[in-house]
Amino acid sequence: MRLKKAQQLKEHASEAIEKLRRLYPDAHCELDFTNPLELLVATILSAQCTDKRVNIVTRDLFKKLRTAADYAAIPQEELEVAIKSTGFFRSKSKSLRSMAQDLVNKFGGKVPASMEELTSLAGVGRKTANVVLGNAFNINAGIVVDTHVRRLAQRLGLTRQEDPEKIESELMKLVPRNDWTNFSHWLIWHGRRCCYAQRPDCAHCGLASICPSFEELSKLATGIEAKKASAAKKPSVPAKRQRKQAA
Predict the structure, then answer these.
(1) Cα dist. 32→70, 94, 127 in Å?
(2) What is the mean pLDDT of residues 182-194?
(3) Taking the C-alpha atoms of 14, 2, 193 and 11 in order, what is their torsion angle to the nearest 10 degrees?
(4) What's the longest Cα–Cα distance across the chain?
(5) Which residues fall within 8 angstroms of residue 104, CB to CB, at 6 or more apart?
(6) Alpha carbon distance 149, 144 (integer Å)
(7) Distance from chain centroid for Cα 82
(8) pLDDT band at 217 (very low <50, low <70, confident <90, very high)
(9) Residue whose C-alpha is closest to residue 155's, from 104, 208, 112, 193
(10) Rounded Cα–Cα distance for residues 138 and 80 (Å)
(11) Is 36 in contact with 132 (CB distance < 8 Å)?
(12) Distances (CA, A) of 14 to 7, 10, 18, 183, 210
């Protein structure tokens, strides 16, 4: 897939943005939170885990742990048990406790509202900081690049980069700053509801008319469905044996 020239790429991105804006007018962060600390914790827990599962876990966790000091003080083993179902619970527990300790020591327990300060916290990278800044503070400091954003940005021909920070840098040049946070939501929602990693639903895609990967992905989806249909028609081994015995 060839990338368009700079001006064409800018126009292509603008068209994609307007289509996404119409497709997902209510797009938002699907992690449940009521304050910046809760969102920071939920985002750390969301690594390699669904938002739905994180929301189930934090429903009880947020009732018990309300301040950064609470997270810093809770025993490692107790926190592990509380978040176990999110996966990688040992490393996540260590990250949460270290992050909370940094909050207490550096910022008096308050979640800071700048990229530099947030990324100074243990276990907090640029993606997590972007989530917190954009959704808890309404600050467009950058564009969240998760697996959905990466996949769709590539499929839409907006980047060829593989590294999340390089992808973010290129997208920030194409997307108006006021839309940075929403742009992530739009791509994430589209990735979760239509442009799946394995079986993209190209037949019902609202971006099909401008997607440079549409033809390729359509063939992929069709091929997968054809294989499934063919497999369903093949008689099982017991059925073959039954026919032989009947003969």
Answers:
(1) 19, 22, 18
(2) 98
(3) 10
(4) 82
(5) 68, 69, 72
(6) 8
(7) 23
(8) confident
(9) 208
(10) 31
(11) yes
(12) 11, 6, 6, 11, 11
Q: Annotated active-site positions, please? A: 127, 146
CA dihedral 40, 45, 49, 55 (to 10 degrees): -70
pLDDT 10s digits, 57-83? 999 999 999 999 999 999 999 999 999
- Do 86 and 49 form a contact (C-beta atoms < 8 A)? yes
Coil, helix or strand at residue 27: coil
Dihedral angle, C-alpha 26, 27, 28, 31, nearest 10 °: 110
185-203 residues labelled b (16+ CB within 10 A) or e (exposed): bbbbbbbeebbeeeebebe
Which whole-number Å values give the CA distances from 196 to 18, 112, 148, in the listed order?
21, 35, 8
Residue carrying the six token digits 């791509």:
187
